[in-house]
Write a structure and sequence with these properties.
Order of helices and strands: EHEHEHEEHEEHEHHEHHHHH
Largest sheet: 5 strands, mixed
Strand content: 15-25%
Number of strands: 9
Structural class: alpha/beta
Strand order of the largest sheet: 3-2-1-4-8
CATH class of the largest domain: Alpha Beta
Low-confidence stretches: none
CATH superfamily of the largest domain: Spore Coat Polysaccharide Biosynthesis Protein SpsA, Chain A
Shape: globular
Length: about 300
């Protein structure tokens, strides 16, 4: 970290976001850390200029760009290409930052005195911005972070603070991936850079029916199947039990639970077969972590069975 007061660019991609955009922009402008710029990228909204009117009402308080519709990755990449800050922070048009989000992250960067990617806990809110629940994340060692992204870590992209220079090393968001462009990039970055957890809620993530992954469910399922199969095969092929901190059976068990929850059949089949080949060795080793996740898996399957009977 070269500058103790670096500029942070908050990039807000939006498509037909008149319902929530003002709340998102207000939360960005209300940051207690003042060396920021707010970049709003209108990704070809076709809502009779409603999104456009809201963005333009902020005048020179924000930097506003309009483009043809191309998906969230294209809007984010435009924001990255024009940003003047040293650090990038994504804010979805329907989410909200806590006022101290950027300040807390900059303070930690000063303490670390090195460039890393920061992420935090987050809370869910509903359509009326009412609190729903909190998602607290574990701190994961850097050498295990890629495995955690695949097996369990529910990272929220809007909680991240990323040095702009990192995009120059691994590239920006993949514009051919409409629904998994975020995790595709986080995995690439996890292979090169350190992710540090801030055990504090810094953003509100809104739950509503028109969210991207929900409104593109068939595309999302297809893309996720391909994404997880690609990375699972890479991980399994390169697995070295001597240097990998997480036992293979634990990784397979945690990933199986995640794949079943997401409804991803091919990755579930792959991780289930992997688990069948490795679970006995972990039982004999009396691995506490494996027993914990095995108990969780059994309870999960029992609950799933009864829910199917009921519904």
């Amino acid at each position: 970290m070269k500058d103790c007061q670096p500029k942070v660019s908050i990039v807000v991609p939006v498509y037909n976001g008149a319902n929530y955009l003002r709340e998102a922009i207000d939360s960005a402008l209300a940051q207690t850390y003042k060396n920021i710029e707010v970049i709003v990228v209108n990704d070809g909204s076709d809502d009779f200029e409603e999104t456009d009117k809201i963005a333009k009402s902020y005048g020179d308080k924000i930097r506003y760009f309009k483009k043809e519709n191309g998906g969230v990755a294209t809007a984010l990449n435009l924001g990255i290409s024009v940003m003047e800050g040293e650090y990038f922070s994504w804010l979805s048009h329907d989410d909200v930052y806590f006022p101290e989000k950027i300040e807390v992250q900059i303070i930690l960067l000063r303490q670390l005195n090195r460039d890393v990617i920061l992420y935090s806990d987050y809370q869910f809110i509903d359509l009326k911005s009412q609190y729903v629940r909190t998602r607290k994340l574990p701190s994961v060692p850097p050498e295990s972070f890629k495995l955690a992204l695949i097996s369990s870590q529910p990272l929220h992209g809007c909680s991240l603070l990323i040095p702009k220079s990192f995009f120059g090393e691994v590239g920006a968001f993949n514009e051919t991936l409409p629904t998994t462009q975020d995790y595709d990039l986080w995995v690439k970055m996890a292979e090169r850079f350190e992710f540090i957890h801030i055990p504090r809620v810094l953003i509100s993530s809104r739950l509503h029916p028109s969210q991207g992954s929900k409104s593109q469910s068939s595309l999302w399922l297809s893309e996720c199947n391909e994404f997880y199969m690609k990375h699972l095969n890479e991980i399994i092929t390169a697995w070295d039990s001597k240097t990998t901190a997480v036992p293979l059976a634990v990784f397979a068990l945690k990933t199986s639970i995640k794949m079943e929850r997401m409804g991803l059949e091919e990755p579930l089949q792959l991780t289930t077969e992997l688990l069948k080949k490795n679970w006995v060795s972990e039982l004999l080793r009396f691995n506490g972590e494996f027993y914990y996740w095995l108990s969780y898996y059994i309870l999960f399957r029992v609950k799933w069975f009864f829910l199917k009977l009921i519904y």
